[in-house]
Amino acid sequence: MPREYARREILIKLMEFPCSALLLSLCGLQEVEATAERADEATAEALYGMGIQVDKCIGCGSCVAACKAENDVPEEPFYFRTWVERYVIHDDGRVQVDSPDGGIRGFTSRQEDGASVLRAFFVPKLCNQCDNPPCVQVCPVGATFKTEDGVILVDSDYCIGCRYCIQACPYGARYLDPRTKTADKCTFCYHRIKQGLLPACVEVCPTQARVFGELTSRASPLRRMMRMSELQVLKPSLNTEPKVYYSKLDGEVR
Amino acid sequence: MAEHFERLESILGQISGYIYPNEIELHWGLLVVLYPYITGLVAGAFILASLEKVFRVKEIEPTYRLSLLTALAFLLVAPLPLLAHLGHPERSFEIFLTPQFRSAMAMFGFVYAWYLTLVLVLEIWFEYRADMVRWSQGEKGLKRVLHWVLSLGSRDLSPAAVAFDRKAVFTITVIGIPSAFLLHGYVGFIFGSVKANPWWSSVLMPIVFLFSAIVSGISLVLILYYVTTMMRRKPLDMACLDKLSEFLLYALIVDFSLELLDFIHRLYESEESIKILSELIFIKLGLSLTIVQILLGTIVPLALLAVARFTQLPAELKRVTYFIAALLVQVGIFSTRWNVVIGGQLFSKSLRGLTVYKLELGGMEGLFSSIGLLLLPFLILFVLVKVLPPWDEARGE
Question: In Å, what is the CA distance from B183 to each residue of B30, B50, B54, B165?
Fold first, then answer.
């Protein structure tokens, strides 16, 4: 008897396999797979990133001003989608960093305090559009999300204003818009790039310190910059996988 | 909004070193300090109650029902500070409707609902069912109706039914202990899992939160038991007080050891953040961490409890010592929550500077609304105690 049972079970199993395949295809599994493939293609076509050539930044602050104007960022100096930091490293190893009003009006010369300067430079900062974004992970309602082209956006009609994402961002790139009481941040000027324009900060940069483009297209200026320079990202140990790449980045920059 | 900007403006002058410009506004204020404080009291009070039911610690029986009602009163208030803190409280229900399952915070609603309805309310109902039936039978007017409604029309006082109540309470408590651990361990996880913040990011955080919760819950019930017994002019059960303070002492020792371990581990590993964190501790948290949390809130009560419990003090002096120790523990635990929540935002994620927290007096995020939110559970507890007296003499048996 047991042997007969076993044979019967095998026959049933053999029947089950084509049946379930048929059933799944009827339910539209192929459709789902096809959609997923299309989505992959779309992603492959456009995956946005930014390159920042630290040695080219002159700290003029045009990018900060352009960003505030373009994106209606509150003008008070507590809200920035992008800002510029100045690093001054002294002979004795002291590091001084400042960003007066986010660097929006540029930088005035510093008061000398005796110690001579070893090196000094400016570093533009913005949302790193992480591929592994901690802000998206923590949002309790999914109001902040990653688009197919890799940009992290906030749905201000959906955000509940809990500010967990602001806490979770290692780069200080988020703020709570005092008018809408929702989280806000750099979008790479999503409304512009979807029309083939450059982000406002890139558009106005007089020295082309900021390079915008598609990470996946070989012809993009970003890819060219990435081929020509040694690149760094900010806080790599946190495994956020930023899509903002810095060339000539100093180890002091955090 | 102008006021808001003025306040931020005034912070600018008090920043030392460099902080990112978006960090000038400190995002989680006093209300978010209240949240882990209150939830901790809930979890702690419940765990104390379960000691009696599951582990059969008979001495603390007089506090069993009081602990349950305390846990309920504080649990009802627990979500309010969070709600008041949201930019859009009217959208808070989205956490239930469209939760983002990878978010630690999204789980709050579910953990909360589970704990409130399935654990606490059910346990209290089964615990009080027979008494509610007896009360409503012996009462007149509104109280009769109230107890009848609360008993859900139950009338059965047979030994079998009462035995079933007991069994149900036991089962729920067995489920309740891991639930209480989950409730507060989870709150610790909300902070401990933020990798961007070196002050929070620690695997020990949920466990430290849990033990500090147990400490705060036991000490709160001790205080409440002491005060309510005094107010009702009844004799204090010394065996019960002894046992409570014994548990308080042990929990405090575990809690303090865990915090020390965390501290030594950070110091020994000496990671990138150690410099700014030591500045944080010595410059910004000197008073609230060293003096209030560690000295007044931990070491002094540890000494008081140990001396009172294990030496021959006169009963009068002994219970006053217990009471003072429990009060100090409350102050200590509150500053623990403060040091975690506020402390974690006083340094820049650039690890290059420190900022300040300006406590407002009025307004939703202010001191007065927080005091109100802290008093509210006591008001609820007062009502609960009137409706469901937890005292021995009120039992209908």
Answer: 21, 15, 19, 25
